[in-house]
């Protein structure tokens, strides 16, 4: 049976330009009827979903986590399932969902039709997949250039983080959750919904994108050397074992800061403090592999 799909590919994604033609050919061979929209700026994503949503059965998005973040609100609004072609630098949502980086394999995952209902994070009216954060990661986002990501790939995040850390100052914040108020002095507060962010760092050990929880950590560093144990612990999600990292869990979190700070959601600046964060259970359906062991992930 022919499946009608809206295919949108971010041509500015790290592998976007050369992957569009390949994806179109493969999806046509897999019996998809496509409406194809090459994307030049993020605003086109939501506009295209609203324009074509009533004519398709699913939406396929080619790009990185920022591209997916730009389309998530319109997908929830239209209640359309999402197929992912991972074409970005970090591809953390694809990593969380075990979607292969190979375009032919990713297309086959979508064609197989196995869907997973996932939770979404929500902050001040904006949905997100992976993580929302204040502080250090916002400075990294502002400094990290498209050229650096194209040239260095995932290493660009590490280089930029080291540059930014030396210039970062602690912020004062109040975290309210579970009928408790906590005052902190921190360089970063991150609130995760998924499993991975920042190119493969774990939000928290054991965190999943369908566990109906938000996982918060606060980096309350006192000395520059404390970043090095963090680099070792982050990939396993064990940063909460360090005494200068506060970890908390809740379904709703309020965050107040001494002045307004930008909020980074999935690598894009989309909101600011003060902010309310919520987990929205089973908010979106995504096409995923039915059996993880049958696909070649190739993340490392």
Describe the structure.
There is one protein chain. With 300 residues, the chain is an alpha+beta fold. The protein folds into 2 domains: 3-113, 3-Layer(aba) Sandwich (Rossmann fold); 126-282, Tumour Suppressor Smad4. The chain is 29% helix and 36% strand. It has 9 helices and 18 strands. The chain has helices spanning 16-29, 43-52, 65-78, 92-96, 103-112, 136-143, 146-152, 155-165, 227-233; strands at 3-10, 32-39, 58-63, 82-86, 115-123, 126-128, 131-135, 171-177, 180-186, 188-192, 196-197, 201-202, 214-219, 245-250, 252-257, 262-265, 268-272, 275-287. Helix 1 (16-29) packs across helix 5, helix 2 packs parallel to helix 3 (65-78) and helix 6 (136-143) packs across helix 8 (155-165). The protein starts with a strand and ends in a 13-residue tail after the last strand.
Layout of helices and strands, plus pairs?
Elements: E1 3-10, H1 16-29, E2 32-39, H2 43-52, E3 58-63, H3 65-78, E4 82-86, H4 92-96, H5 103-112, E5 115-123, E6 126-128, E7 131-135, H6 136-143, H7 146-152, H8 155-165, E8 171-177, E9 180-186, E10 188-192, E11 196-197, E12 201-202, E13 214-219, H9 227-233, E14 245-250, E15 252-257, E16 262-265, E17 268-272, E18 275-287
Parallel strand pairs: 1-2, 1-3, 3-4
Antiparallel strand pairs: 5-6, 5-18, 7-10, 7-16, 8-9, 8-15, 10-13, 11-12, 13-14, 15-18, 16-17
